[in-house]
């Protein structure tokens, strides 16, 4: 038999978005280059949103008055992608 079309639920309820808030690990090629990514604490998740200054430059960007972050750095690319997602 082929594929079968299954109708979705008639309920139009929005599903709850589950987000992971535990500690993560970015695995490297050796034990020495594994990176620990700490999870967000309950306190941080409950903070009010705040305004920050994001300035885009030819060679990178700055957040508030922080250092220049290059576009080529993979962690900066992840940051910019999350900014684009809102």
UniProtKB/TrEMBL annotation:
SEP domain location: 49-86
SUPFAM superfamilies named among the record's database cross-references: NSFL1 (p97 ATPase) cofactor p47, SEP domain
Signal peptide segment: none
PROSITE patterns: SEP (PS51399)
GO cellular component: cytosol; nucleus
GO molecular function: ubiquitin binding
GO biological process: autophagosome assembly; Golgi organization; membrane fusion; nuclear membrane reassembly; proteasome-mediated ubiquitin-dependent protein catabolic process
Biased composition (Basic and acidic residues): 1-10
Pfam families: SEP
InterPro entries in alphabetical order: NSFL1C_SEP_dom_sf (IPR036241), SEP_domain (IPR012989)
Polar residues bias (residue ranges): 33-44
UniProt region (Disordered), positions on chain: 1-48
Name of protein: NSFL1 cofactor p47
Organism of this sequence: Halocaridina rubra
